[in-house]
Amino acid sequence: MAKWGEGDPRWIVEQRADATNVNNWHWTERDASNWSTEKLKGLFLAVRVENEEGVCEVTEVSKLDGEASINNRKGKLIFFYEWNIKLSWTGTSKSGVKFKGHVEIPNLSDENDVDEVEISISLAKDEPDTNLMVLMKQEGMKKIRNAMSTYISTLKTEFTQGMILPTVNGEQTEPVTQLATKAEDHKTTASTVTAAPESKPIGVKIPTCKISLKDIFLTSPEELYRVFTTQELVQAFTHAPAIIEADKGGKFHLLDGSVSGKFIDLVPEKQMVMKWRFKSWPSGHFATVTLNFTDKGGETEVRLEGKDIPSSEEERTKQGWQRYYFEGIKQTFGYGARLF
């Protein structure tokens, strides 16, 4: 028998004069409704499919009624979610004719497997028949189902961080910090990445360096380019307000202003060139960042080349791009793992 105070801390019920719920031993609940609303919107608005007939894409989340929560009882997490969803989609034929339609998901809930969730896809009233309906019902439905699967998996991983915190010698261990799941939480996380000495005045010459990164995303160059240049989708993967003017010379502000710059050149599906900076860099100093998108047949290779990066910021800049851009996109839209 273990001595008093020894043993697995998850199994120790501690008496506290301040009535603190140590280790969440008693029933606790975390509301995930607001987080789920933003996550689902971002995932559904990224749905886009294309074939020889044309293009179909989800253009609006017109209804998102429901709730989600996570309950913790004696170290066991219990997930509850129930959503009634309506989406609007637009199809554009190769000849440029547009068609509008609707998607209804009456019961996305924890009681059903994703493959069992009912998805109804239809054309809007008075719209003529089109072969784009076949594209939307086949490939579009797969993308919508994948979006739901990604939501459920991130709900059970990303949002649950810190819900089970065992104690050691009476002191609570700190949760591992990861990409924030709410815009309001992101201010704390972003501050970790952007912490640096105060900005140096204009005119101070600083040593600079170059960086290179490469990553693979399980989506098409067209879809990935759209994620980088659509304001709503950028807000979805950064979990923070953003301003994106996706035109040559257009400006952008991300992560509550921690990152800013302007687009120098944009070649859809191929390349993005931008002047880019952290807020904490010397005033007026911008790096030049180029993203090249290469179609790898069902996958997209992204190569990042950055120059004029302050030498003292080399690792921080590489980690910021990898974590807040690349990993953020994969986690939000499911582009990092195959879903079967």
| Series of secondary-structure elements, N-terminal to C-terminal | EHEEEEEHEEHEHHEEEEEEH
Instruction: Please describe the biggest sheet, giving its number of strands, its sense, and whether it closes into a barrel.
Output: 7 strands, antiparallel
Instruction: Output the strand order for the largest sheet.
Output: 9-15-14-13-12-11-10
User: Termini separation (Å)?
Assistant: 47 Å
SS summary, helix count: 6
- Strand segment tally: 15
List low-pLDDT spans.
Answer: 1-26, 164-203
Instruction: Give the overall average pLDDT.
Output: 80
Helix content: 25-40%
**What is the beta-strand fraction?**
35-45%
> How large is the radius of gyration?
23 Å
Structural class: alpha+beta
Globular, elongated, flat, extended or rod-shaped: what is the shape? globular
